[in-house]
Write a structure and sequence with these properties.
Layout: E1 3-4, E2 11-12, E3 21-26, E4 28-29, E5 39-44, E6 47-52, E7 58-63, E8 66-73, E9 81-86
Antiparallel strand pairs: 1-4, 2-3, 3-7, 5-6, 5-8, 8-9
Amino acid sequence: MTILLRAVIVSVVLCASGEAATVGGRVLDSTGASLPGVTVEATGERGSRIAVTAADGSYRFDLEPGPWTLTFQLINFASPRRPVVVGSPPLPAPR
């Protein structure tokens, strides 16, 4: 099985110099069902942050400007990675 990342980046609020931005989305399986309990790790130049998806598959981070990599982990699923640049326009959701 694989984790389908649809609408991974729901919102990235453009940030002014040095301010954090909200990055969040939903994790879905290949059938479109929400996946609760997925560990989402954001890794960047300033360290890492961890969130766990809620019952509706949603997650949220407040991240400083710069490049980040989001890694999604759940037992028996692939662990995809997705690059995100905070301070840039939102990326389209993968299909």
